[in-house]
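Notes from hallway chat w/ T.B., transcribed later so I don't forget. T.B. wanted the structure written out for a chain they're using in a teaching module, and asked if we could keep both sequence and structure tokens in one place. Agreed to drop them here.
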Amino acid sequence: MRKTLLLAAMVCMSLASAHAESVVPLAFGNFDQWITRHIKESAIIGGAEKKLFEVGPTRAISGNKAYSNMGGSPWATSNVYAKVAGVVKGSNQVYPDRHGNGYCAKLTTQYEHVKALGIINMDVLASGTMFLGQMIEPVSSTKNPYSKMNMGVPFTKRPTALQFEYKLTVPKGQRIYSSGFGSKKNLPGQDYAEVFILLQRRWEDSKGIIHAARVGTGRQRFGSSVPNWTKHRIPIWYGDITHHAGYQSYMGLIPQEKNYYAKNSKGKLVPIIEEEWDDANATPTHMVIMISSGCGTAYTGTPGMALWVDNVALVY
């Protein structure tokens, strides 16, 4: 009898071990280390010094220099050093903030004000965004923001979920479009904070065009305030998920008019043409993770929206 009970216990322990999950933090995903950049804006727009924050090994960088990921950090942000027609401007919507004994990332939707000797007076609305990849600087135009972002990192695993901690403030206010050109426009509906993970199998054709099939999808929008820190998981579904019970239209393949970009084998930034759903058992080649205080098109959102995020990890 004792042998039988011991054997049963060993079998149960073996089964439990076989189904035990593993939580693997992303590099720098605890957001305890930040790089502070000091950008001197052009005199014509006031000549102020602007602080820009990046996720990476703690240090300060002075001078109007293009930034590239440092210290092995895979994270890029919507914080950018821009130089348009010779005019230098810094833009920052992602900040370090205190969380417990360390730090977290605070992403905000806010106006960037541009005034030039009383001649130009512009309000540009921007949402705080973090993503895996690289922002290409200096940004030289406001056209097609995704074309300045090298989106995604090489990745060949198959996690079951994206895990993180968050809290969210959704203000009472109008959803607005403000590109700085023309008047502000009030838009119907509300804006949402958004977090997503996309697993893609990419390949490049003879013309240097990057194609992709969607292997795995985890995507969620958040429209109500969450005042207290909450641990959350977004499940990753594999293959064609259009018939999944939880499928939402925004989880679909990326339309070509909103293509993300990546560097091809020649180092040129080109659109990623996501053209099909992959087999549910396929192995990805790249992972895209994006966290944002807005989910609309560029220059669209609700001023004052704020999303705090910490301890981003993959679950297996």
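Follow-up for T.B.: The two ends are 37 Å apart (CA to CA). Might be a good example for the class.
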